[in-house]
Specification:
Layout (H helix, E strand, L loop, with lengths): L11 E5 L2 E6 L3 E6 L15 H11 L12 E7 L4 E10 L2 E10 L2 H14 L4 H5 L3 H8 L8 H17 L14
Antiparallel strand pairs: 1-2, 2-3, 4-5, 5-6
């Protein structure tokens, strides 16, 4: 896949011999070697694998669907680009035993929802409550421009709202600004 395709995900790229410079406003510039097998915070290769990983989650979302009788449910949207998302959780005791999401929108919002669903299934409610923006950015493995943060953090916001509505998390009292 051509490197130029990364611009569709909101990246600025410069190819210098064996390195690629990936630049995003707000997250600085990162130098990435174009050698297979290099990893960042997990097992995603920094060559083209992170892009493929995001697109795979977008094209083949994990845990997509709806739970028949969820213990926690919330939905929200990002009016700036039209992303929509709903999350259902099944909680037994203190353990998240099932997660499903439904939505539509850009690759970043839907891939992040898929990744987040994999991250939380089987975790305790307390572990899920502790998830924050850095965890989402780590899961994506790429810097996100300020214009795309609302897309990337939509699933996290909906997740925390579902827990709060179910009485499993104290509602946020702060500003819900994603930047």
């Amino acid at each position: 896949m051509p490197i130029a395709d990364l611009s569709a995900l909101g990246f600025s790229l410069i190819n210098l011999s064996n390195s690629i410079i990936v630049s995003h406003l707000g997250h600085g510039t990162r130098f990435i070697r174009e050698k297979p097998g290099r990893t960042v915070k997990g097992n995603k290769s920094m060559s083209m694998d992170y892009r493929e990983y995001i697109l795979d989650h977008y094209r083949h979302p994990r845990n997509y669907g709806k739970l028949e009788h969820p213990d926690a449910h919330a939905e929200d949207s990002n009016p700036l680009c039209g992303d929509q998302l709903a999350i259902d959780l099944q909680v037994e005791g203190d353990l998240v035993t099932a997660v499903r999401f439904q939505g539509r929108g850009c690759a970043i919002s839907q891939a992040t929802a898929s990744m987040l669903s994999e991250m939380i299934e089987g975790k305790t409610v307390e572990e899920v409550v502790q998830l924050g923006k850095e965890d989402v950015l780590d899961a994506l493995g790429i810097p996100i421009s300020p214009a795309r943060t609302k897309c990337a953090f939509l699933s996290l916001r909906v997740l925390h709202r579902s827990l709060a509505l179910a009485g499993l998390e104290k509602p946020s009292t702060g500003d819900e600004d994603d930047e």
